[in-house]
Design brief:
The chain has 15 helices and five strands. It has helices at 10-21, 39-51, 64-70, 89-101, 121-132, 152-155, 168-177, 182-188, 195-202, 207-220, 225-237, 244-263, 276-282, 288-306, 311-324; strands spanning 28-32, 77-80, 109-113, 138-144, 159-162. α4 (89-101) packs parallel to α5 (121-132), α11 runs antiparallel to α15 (311-324) and α12 (244-263) runs antiparallel to α14 (288-306).
């Protein structure tokens, strides 16, 4: 675990490494950004460097403190996460007690808080003075999907470390380098904001099969209404899945976008690269406006599913829309 293992997030890494290098570490940081962008990995890398005996801009990985950290034996690192829907005041009080007991007078103590936006008002108030005046050298690393959702009183007492969605090309290179199937990687990097989230998608049971269904549906949806409904019925409706339909529609959106990429000569941007021959033969069967209409219909179906419309009804309406949109050629 080090900053070198984190893909992208150069700005976040620069903020943290400069603080280490200049020995100007703040008492509290707010790691804010979408799920899967590497916030937790960066927090762990920063914590490891804070404990490292070499005191450089990254952990050395060789000293006793680094080895203890890597084996989960760092006693001065604490974790706190929501208990149910919120982080409660009793959790904060327990955290304060734990920190006051540990390593009396010996170096820093660090705690990583997941879901900082879920602090109750009472818990946040309990934290305020502790953030500013801890009993001993303490560094707080607060993690959140949305910094604006964190209570202003907490936000104003932390240094923001922003995390942004990682570029698909960077994630693709890293994931293929890890040995994940390239065909799955090409899709996953467009469905998630970071490497961790992409890995979860790739490793989902049935993800490869869903990709195959999308390809089949993409081909059938434009001209074979009955065949498309059979494909959906067999793949989705009989499975009883509630999450798969939304993911399927997101993947289908990429399929229609590939047609526009091909028309524009951007073959390097195509997601379903193994279907290039089919795309080459069919991309011009509709105009750009026609493919945009397909994408808009896909987004509308996804919206209906999120609004708790029965997936089968949403898909049927989607396919009807595609048939009615044949005039956009």
């Amino acid at each position: 675990m080090s900053f070198q293992t984190i893909v992208g997030q150069e700005n976040a890494k620069r903020i943290l490494q400069q603080a280490l290098q200049r020995n100007s570490v703040s008492h509290a940081y707010l790691f804010s950004g979408p799920l899967g962008t590497g916030r937790r990995a960066a927090a762990m890398a920063f914590a490891k460097a804070l404990f490292c005996e070499e005191q450089g801009s990254d952990a050395c990985g060789n000293c006793l403190s680094c080895r203890k950290f890597e084996h989960g034996n760092q006693p001065n690192l604490l974790h706190i996460a929501p208990d149910g829907a919120t982080i409660k005041i009793d959790q904060i009080r327990q955290l304060q007690r734990e920190l006051s007991y540990r390593s009396q007078g010996e170096g820093r103590k660090v705690y990583i808080m997941e879901g900082a936006e879920k602090l109750t008002v009472q818990a946040a108030n309990s934290m305020l003075k502790f953030l500013e005046e801890p009993a001993s050298p303490v560094v707080a690393l607060l993690l959140t999907d949305n910094g604006q959702a964190v209570l202003p009183t907490i936000r104003s007492r932390t240094q923001l470390v922003p995390f942004y969605p990682v570029a698909p090309a960077d994630m693709r290179e890293a994931l293929i380098g890890e040995g994940h199937p390239a065909m799955l990687v090409h899709v996953a990097v467009h469905l998630a904001s970071g490497l961790d989230a992409c890995r979860e998608i790739i490793q989902q049971e049935g993800f490869a099969e869903t990709r195959n269904v999308v390809i089949q549906l993409g081909k059938e949806s434009l001209i074979k209404y009955t065949a498309a409904m059979v494909t959906l019925s067999q793949a989705i409706f009989k499975s009883g899945s509630t999450q798969q339909p939304e993911q399927l529609m997101s993947m289908l959106l990429l399929w229609y976008k590939d047609m526009i990429h091909f028309q524009a000569g951007r073959e390097d941007a195509i997601v379903y690269v193994d279907q290039l021959d089919w795309i080459r033969n069919h991309a011009f069967t509709r105009s750009v406006e026609g493919w945009v209409f397909c994408m808009e219909s896909t987004l509308e179906a996804s919206k209906r599913i999120r609004a708790h419309v029965t997936p089968q009804l949403a898909f049927e309406q989607f396919l009807v829309n595609l048939q009615e949109g044949k005039s956009l050629v």
